[in-house]
Design goal:
The protein is α/β, with parallel strands linked by helices. It has 9 helices and 14 strands. The structure holds zinc ion and fe (iii) ion (FE).
Length: about 260
Amino acid sequence: MTLIPLPAFDDNYIWMLHDGRQALVVDPGDEQPVLQALQTHGLQLKAILVTHHHIDHVGGVDELRAATGAAVYGPAGEAMPEPLQRFSDGDTLELLGLHFTVLDVPGHTAGHIAWYTADCDGQPLLFCGDTLFSGGCGRLFEGTPAQMLASLDKLAALPGQTRVCCAHEYTLGNLRFARAVDPDNAALQHYTRQCEAQRARQLPTLPSTIALERDINPFLRSRQPAVARAVQARSTARDEVSVFAALREWKNEFR
Ligand code: ZN
Ligand code: FE
């Protein structure tokens, strides 16, 4: 299987997975990059997977469905371009010979889901939309800090070698904040240099892996003493949900 991040808008990625003949895409906010990639590689679009209702993730769904006849699969609990098949936690779906499982990951939006397969050419693969970013996490537009913390815990518990396909190239900005929170983290310093080199060549920093995110992402590390201490030094947060909430607030204000 070939995995391709198709750049869209300023910093979105529309992930495409194909076997040389058939393809699926995730969160097509725009139909144009997808139509072009289908033509370039001579592919038939079989399926459109969606993680949440934001327009930069669904804006191209109607046009792609009409142009290709692809089936659309999305979250059970969100307003979506119809018709689509609706999925929630624990539901499974077979596509292009891959077995996907759906995870409910509320926080960024109330009904946000993630698509996970344990075996894509022998390696697990996760499409997590705007829940987990490399070095960061989505803003809490509809969910609570407790929900987002539980959602990130769920993703962090996936196998370490899981490739993490995030929907935005936010990595360098996230890492700048991460270094402010966790300045003595050597893995974070090393990863920053790696990502800066990628971006200097205009290459994606993604996919990441769950193992890497566990080591460098402050939002997966809010219970680590160094991270919790940094948050507590600038807030009254004490319990783990409050610390996570204060960490997310800190990021919102960080310049
Ligand atoms: Zn979003
Ligand atoms: Fe987005």
